[in-house]
Design brief:
Elements (H helix, E strand, L loop, with lengths): L13 E8 L2 E5 L5 E5 L2 E8 L6 E3 L14
Antiparallel strand pairs: 1-4, 2-3, 2-5
Length: about 70
């Protein structure tokens, strides 16, 4: 799940946002920390402005690939 927060200026300032998470356990994609567990409801997330907030549900498969250049 992606929860973008787009602001034109002050990209280094942190802010707090409320994000709705459906029922399950959710983790921050970047640091692996648990951000929400249990019933579906909103949770408070601290984030930097202009940061792509990505959350992954427990027991899911999320494939990634390194950037590759083709000829």
């Amino acid at each position: 799940m992606v929860c973008p927060l787009i602001v034109q200026d002050d990209a280094d300032i942190s802010t707090v946002i409320a994000v709705y998470f459906p029922f399950r356990t959710w983790y921050d994609y970047y640091n692996g920390g648990c951000v929400h567990s249990g019933k579906g409801n909103s949770a408070v997330v601290t984030t930097r402005l202009n940061h792509r907030n990505m959350f992954v549900v427990n027991s899911s498969v999320f494939l990634t690939q390194q950037v590759a250049h083709s000829a």
